[in-house]
Structures are given as structure tokens and as C-alpha cells.
Amino acid sequence: MAKKMSLAQRVNVLRAIVMGANDGIISVAGIVIGVAAATNNTYAILISGLSGVLAGMISMCMGEYVSVSTQKDSQRRAQLDEQRRLKEDFDGEYRFVKQKYLDQDIAPALAEEATQELMSNDPLNVAVQERYGFNPRDLTSPYAAAIASFISFPLGSILPMVAVTTAPATVRIGVTMVGVLLALVLTGYCGAVLGNNPRWGKAILRNVAAGLLTMGVTFVIGQLFRG
């Protein structure tokens, strides 16, 4: 039976999904708006957009895999280091964990009781969590993050692709920009929820600003090369 993901692992996969979709929206919107600003040829816009989707899928997938793998390797190394510390100086690690609880204003008697119980049952995981700040049971799978990004990037790119290729040539850029900004509000909101930040605050503003900047720059470049 496959091991069930913890809440933290599921949140990390959801983060990869939201970020992948967000990058798909911004990246492909920037490409198609830049090309649409340079030409009215729908075929050229479509091909450039599809090329961006394929390149982005691979880039996001490999980027997530490398990033999460590097983080996981560092966490594994921390576990090995802590395992060595426990073997060489268990009492020192015991005192370290107890002091961490005392620093949180826990009563000395209660801190002693908690340390004794936790270090008796699962000393490695407890010591790693207190020393390094992560739960060894919640290591994110690089494969799950990579697959999530690989799927979500093209899903995010659907909106700018459909908008720019189906809207009339005279309004296609404006329609695409409006659709993209609405989508970025949604992904910004989802990112704020996952990050436990204010729903209608800086997360959405940053997302929308990034989208506007990307589309503005590519639009100007496209205009410079317009035939």
C-alpha cells in the first residue's frame, strides 16, 4: 500500500501546483502578447505560445525536481549529523532539547517531563525538529513536486493561449491582459491561503504587478519590431 502523504507534504505539492500554474499564466502571456504586439498573424502567435508552453513545462518540472532534491539532500544530511550527535553525546542533545522548551517559557518540571517522554520514544526526529526546524516525517517528494509543476504549467497557460488566439485582432491584447490579471488574482489568492497570509493583501498585488510588468515589457518589445 502506498504511503499516505502528510498535511505538510500535501501543502508542498499544492504549492508546486499553484506556482506552476502562476508561471504558466505569466510566462505564456508575456510571450503571446509580445508576438501579438509585433504581428497580427494568428498562426505565428499560436506557434510561439505553444513553444513557450513546451519549454516552460520542462523548465518548471526540472526546476522543481532539482530544487526539492537539493532541499531533501540537505535535510538528509542534517538527520545523519543529528544521528551522530545522539550516538556520541546523547545527554548533551537531551539538554539541548530541554533548553529549547525552557526558552519557550515552559515550566521546568513540564519541560523535563516532555523532554524525557519525547526523547525516549523518538529521539532522532525530536532532536532534528528542535535543532533544524523541520519534521523528518514531512520530507517532500521531488517527483511529486516535478509532476505537479509539469501538469499545472500548461493548465495555467490555457487562458492566455485561448484569449489571444480567439479574440478579434483589434482587441486581442486587451482581452488577454484582462483575463490574465483575473487569473493572477486567483493564483495570488491561493498562494496567500497556502502561505497563511492575508487573502486580499500583498500576495495578490505582487502577483498582479509581476504580470503587468511582464506583459508591459514584452508588449513594448513587440511594438519595436512591428512590421
Radius of gyration: 24 Å
Morphology call: elongated
Give the helices and strands as they follow along the chain.
HHHHHHHH
Q: How much of the polypeptide forms β-strand, as a percent range?
A: under 5%
Largest sheet: none
How many strands appear in the DSSP assignment?
Answer: 0
Straight-line N-to-C gap: 60 Å
Q: Please tell me the total number of domains.
A: 1
Helicity, as a percent range: over 70%
Give the averaged pLDDT, no decimals: 89
Helix/strand/pairing category: mainly alpha
Number of helices: 8
Spans of at least 5 consecutive residues with low confidence: none
What does this protein look like?
This protein has 227 residues and is mostly helical. The protein has one domain. The protein is built from eight helices and no strands. α3 packs across α4. The model has no long low-confidence stretch (mean pLDDT 89).
Sum up the structure in keywords.
mainly alpha
Task: Explain the layout of strands and helices.
Layout: H1 7-38, H2 42-88, H3 90-102, H4 108-121, H5 123-132, H6 142-166, H7 172-194, H8 202-224
Helix pairs in contact: 1-2, 1-6, 1-7, 1-8, 2-3, 2-5, 2-6, 3-4, 3-5, 4-5, 6-7, 7-8
Condensed summary:
It is built from 8 helices and no strands. The chain is an all-alpha fold and 227 residues long. The longest helix has 47 residues, at 42-88.
